[in-house]
């Protein structure tokens, strides 16, 4: 190629960079409102008079009563009627982080976001109210999953499951501590007494998790697995919990805990001898907290000192693992541009990892830094651009021109894998629908009669295809931990629409 040809290519590249690509615009404010409304559809317990998703009614009003403990409330994690506290606590932590990071952009939706957080913390306080025990689940998952019935009709066993000193569960206990600590900061300006109660309980539950170490896989494996097994050890949750406690309290004991234990994460193996886990810096979700720890702590350690290692370097490596142009890319992208990682319910990865990218872009901007991925330089604006591409894909800028949020856009999933949504409401069908009575609705091809507004489903496959089938739960089931990080992202783009 001669010099003139090279010059022509360079000019064309500049034109591509300078001239914006016109894409379909999205109403991020509408999507934000609906993403928060979704949590009202997942509520368990006695609903408030202010309940906006009115086809849902009271459910599971005697949870825990058989053993003399009030465990009423909280959230159903997905399309079933079990309360799994591990993903519930993670969703709460991410809702709280969304408000802490982007709450100023939420406007009138901020009140509803805080209500969603408090609905969870009220329950988590109940789940940690008995000294020496942490309740981690309510409902027999096998019995529940064998039925297709509304939460209002549940007649399957509402068995409570707990960890204790003798039968520990450090991962779920530490995640609850993180949720309570993060939420205490959200509630502090609104209800100082309640916030103090949350942080006091967070300290207590964290101490319990740390002193009596062990995985709930061992103590409750037959009931928590394969649904929410912990595959990444409990050490990441302990460090994650300590990081949130440090952020909430500024107590040096928690900062020291993080610094002393962070290096252990790279050599953890819950089912055998220690092994090197070199890819853990790129993992984040309800199970693995590694990337979240690095991004969170990178803000708490504001300069390049011994305290900042390895947080900032690992956060940078995390960024490089996601950038499509990076030589160290470790995820896949569909032809339409959606981020993919292994495992089901893929949009949980797209939303959780995008949240971290967006948060980190803000920290980089404040520190006047960029990320170097070998010879590729990633600016904070590039991170924001990548996050926007993921959000826009979810909202309909994709090959199918389909929104994966129920109730947003002209085309969205109509047959989501969700019991309450797929069965007629109490208002429409006051009579009891038993365990097998819902099967015809599950097998039928009619759209769900109740819109679970704001629910984001598991999403398309890696070829950008989506079948809109209740039976295809990997792709059609919504979860709280898909929506929770998306709340913060949508708040940001509401105030930065272009």
Automatic annotation (TrEMBL):
The active site is at residues 417, 468, 477. The keyword Hydrolase applies. Residues 1-25 form the signal peptide. It catalyses: Endohydrolysis of (1->4)-beta-D-glucosidic linkages in cellulose, lichenin and cereal beta-D-glucans. One of its GO terms (biological process) is cellulose catabolic process. Gene3D superfamilies: 1.50.10.10. GO terms for molecular function: cellulase activity. Keywords: Carbohydrate metabolism, Cellulose degradation, Glycosidase, Hydrolase, Polysaccharide degradation, Signal. Its EC number is 3.2.1.4. The keyword Signal applies. Residues 28-490 form the Glycoside hydrolase family domain. Belongs to the glycosyl hydrolase 9 (cellulase E) family. This is Endoglucanase. It comes from Rhamnella rubrinervis. The lineage of its organism: Eukaryota, Viridiplantae, Streptophyta, Embryophyta, Tracheophyta.
């Amino acid at each position: 190629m001669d010099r003139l040809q090279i010059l022509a290519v360079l000019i064309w590249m500049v034109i591509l960079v300078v001239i914006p690509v016109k894409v379909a615009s999205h109403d991020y404010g509408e999507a934000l409102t609906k993403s928060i409304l979704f949590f009202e559809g997942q509520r368990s317990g006695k609903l408030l008079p202010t309940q906006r998703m009115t086809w849902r009614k009271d459910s599971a009003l005697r949870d825990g009563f058989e053993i003399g403990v009030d465990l009423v409330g909280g959230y159903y994690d997905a399309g079933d009627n079990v309360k799994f506290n591990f993903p519930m606590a993670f969703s709460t932590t991410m809702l709280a982080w969304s408000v802490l990071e982007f709450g100023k952009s939420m406007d009138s939706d901020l009140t509803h976001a805080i209500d969603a957080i408090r609905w969870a913390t009220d329950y988590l306080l109940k789940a940690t109210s008995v000294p020496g025990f942490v309740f981690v689940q309510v409902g027999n998952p096998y019995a529940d999953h064998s039925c297709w019935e509304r939460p209002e009709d549940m007649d399957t066993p509402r068995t409570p499951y707990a960890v204790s000193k003798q039968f520990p569960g450090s991962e779920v206990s530490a995640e609850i501590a993180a949720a309570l600590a993060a939420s205490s900061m959200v509630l502090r300006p609104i209800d100082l007494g309640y916030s103090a109660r949350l942080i006091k309980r967070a300290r207590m539950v964290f101490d319990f998790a740390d002193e009596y170490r062990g995985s709930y896989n061992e103590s409750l494996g037959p009931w928590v697995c394969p649904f929410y097994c912990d595959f990444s050890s409990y050490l990441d949750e302990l460090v994650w919990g300590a990081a949130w406690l440090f952020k909430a309290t500024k107590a040096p004991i928690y900062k020291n805990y993080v610094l002393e234990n962070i290096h252990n994460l790279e050599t953890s193996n819950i089912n055998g001898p220690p092994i090197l886990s070199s890819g853990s810096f790129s993992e984040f979700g309800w199970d693995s907290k590694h990337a979240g720890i690095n991004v969170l702590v990178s803000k708490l350690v504001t300069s390049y000192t011994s305290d900042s290692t390895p947080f900032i370097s690992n956060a940078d490596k995390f960024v490089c693992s996601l950038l499509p142009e990076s030589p160290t890319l470790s995820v896949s992208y569909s032809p339409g541009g959606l981020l993919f990682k292994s495992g089901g319910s893929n949009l949980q990865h797209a939303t959780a990892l995008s949240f971290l990218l967006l948060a980190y872009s803000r920290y980089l901007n404040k520190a006047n830094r960029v990320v170097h991925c070998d010879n590729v330089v990633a600016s904070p604006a590039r991170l924001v651009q990548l996050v926007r591409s993921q959000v826009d894909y979810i909202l309909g800028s994709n090959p199918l021109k389909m929104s994966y949020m129920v109730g947003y856009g002209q085309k969205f999933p109509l047959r989501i894998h969700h019991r309450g949504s797929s069965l007629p409401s109490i208002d429409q069908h006051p009579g009891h629908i038993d365990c097998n009575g819902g099967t015809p609705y599950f097998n039928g091809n009619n759209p769900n009669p109740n819109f679970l507004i704001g629910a984001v489903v598991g999403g398309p496959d890696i070829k950008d295809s989506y079948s809109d089938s209740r039976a295809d739960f990997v792709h059609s089931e919504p979860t709280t931990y898909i929506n929770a990080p998306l709340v913060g992202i949508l708040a940001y783009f509401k105030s930065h629409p272009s």
